[in-house]
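We now fix the convention by which a protein and its fold are recorded. Think of the row as the fold of the chain written in a discrete alphabet. Here is one such record, which you should read through line by line.
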Amino acid sequence: MTQVSQTNFIEGAIAGNVISFPTDTVPALAVRPDNATAIFTLKQRAPEKPLILMAAAWRDLQPYLTGTPDEFATWEGIVQRYWPGALTLVLPASPSVPPAMNPLNPETIGVRVPNSDIALALLAKTGPLATTSANRSGESPLETMAAIEAAFDERVLIPNDVPGDIKLGSGLPSTVVRWMEGEWTVLRQGSVRLI
């Protein structure tokens, strides 16, 4: 793994390199959406496990979504209540979403705004990024930068101002809910419960 300055970290992300950074749940692997295949290759991830589009704000995600004005109003109500936070919304994808982010069902996309100052500051500079937990597919999420460094060597950029041996995030996955036919369905129950 390559530890780089904050400036080089942001530049690397914008250039399309795979990066890792802390979030409120577990550390993420991330890449520009149009280079999403790089994460599938790095993690040896099956195509039926889509990536999540993470951003600094709801407005940054809206161009990647398609829906009626009423649907957007409903989604925004959930967003205002639970974001930033550990809730991933699976919503209808617009043509702006690269198919590689969800190879088997490019008509939907998971979106999230994390409750992490480090992540939000990064995403405000890079724009939305395709993300997933930092681990090889089928293994437990890695929780420290040192563990991520050991697993991925120089293939992933990390910021040199994040401590390597401190557990990052809650360790709990985000709750994932899907919007379909006007209703929410829980796909994965995490720390957030929709009421």
